[in-house]
Write a structure and sequence with these properties.
Elements (H helix, E strand, L loop, with lengths): L8 E5 L6 H11 L6 E6 L4 H12 L2 E8 L2 E7 L6
Parallel strand pairs: 1-2
Antiparallel strand pairs: 2-4, 3-4
Helix pairs in contact: 1-2
């Protein structure tokens, strides 16, 4: 699921319920460089909608989203800093 040459940072959010997966994802992305990638794993069924919506609203790219045996995995590329 990695589209770049560098390994994405990993964020394990399994077991957390809405809105925590989005809030924690937002916090981690805020501390990352533009265009870096974050791999997020969740078990919350609502994360499929919430993470996609968050990425659109915040200007991040949802590179990949896939169902796993225990939930979902998202690869997010951090968007540019907005002035």
């Amino acid at each position: 699921m990695n589209s770049g040459s560098a390994e994405p940072r990993h964020l394990d959010l399994k077991g957390l319920k809405c809105p925590l997966p989005v809030l924690k994802t937002r916090k981690v992305l805020a501390g990352m460089a533009s265009a870096s990638e974050l791999l997020v794993e969740t078990t919350d069924p609502l994360a499929v909608l919430d993470i996609a919506h968050f990425c659109r609203e915040a200007g991040h790219q949802l590179v990949a989203s896939e169902k796993t045996p225990f939930g979902h995995r998202f690869l997010i590329r951090r968007g540019p800093d907005l002035a």
